[in-house]
Amino acid sequence: MPDLSFVLPLVLQSALLPFAVALALLVAGRVRPGAPAAVVAAVAAGFLASYFATLHAQWSLLPRVALDWLPLMVVAGAAAAVAVENVRTAAARRLARAAVSLAAAALVVWPALGSLGATKAALAAVATGLLIAAAWSVKAHAAARRPTPPLLLAVVAGGAGLALMLDSSQSIGQLSGGLASALAACLAFNVPRRRVPFPPAAAGFAVLMLGVLLANAHLYAGFSLGYVALLAAALAADPLWSLLRGARAPDNQVAAWATAAVLTAIPVAATIGLAVKAAQDAGGY
């Protein structure tokens, strides 16, 4: 029988609390279409609730480690995502996404400057920032056209959380699970009828936070780059599938969305499977 003293706090911190906070804000705010900031705020609040429930004992107001910066990055990232997606021209939006992503990556890498050295730290920050910006762009583009991004982002974040808990960092894994739960609240809010679309700003914010978590896990907890690559492939599955289908509309939109979900889930499942195998090989399970 599982140890409930371990399982129950984990479920509360990573699933129930962020889901409830995000959903409560969406319901209480009576969110309407055309109010992307409210959706972003709900996801951010749910994620922050998970953060403080998980790391309240370790968090320092004056940041000492990379994860101490996360609350500031959540608030600034949410505001930046809304501002960026309000920029009128596509080229300016892409540049703004890159600037925000590079700034977030630099904050993540900064504590590792001494161990990595200036050159490696700069390369890590630039590579991380550009990858986040690229994922942000494709998910924001998808959010403006399809209802699938919150589901697919929740699948990737939830799968990443499980893989992280198995093979790398329980705390970062819980935070990734908290992000997935906040995204799931956006799905629940639109059941049984779609009340408000998931805006590009919310998709961009979710990608930014997921990228920050994965960068932290790789730099400070030994999360494999192979796992990161698989999760990046999962993020790219939906836009690549849409590109392969071409501009023509499919006969069955639901079938097309289901295919995108399956294609997203495959690399996520592979990541979890590899993490389970690594844990078994290490004798932990």
Automatic annotation (TrEMBL):
Membrane-spanning parts: 6-28, 35-53, 65-83, 95-113, 119-138, 150-166, 172-191, 198-219, 225-244, 256-276
UniProt entry keywords in alphabetical sequence: Membrane, Transmembrane, Transmembrane helix
Origin superkingdom: Bacteria
Protein name, per record: Uncharacterized protein
Organism: Ramlibacter lithotrophicus
Lineage: Bacteria, Pseudomonadati, Pseudomonadota, Betaproteobacteria, Burkholderiales
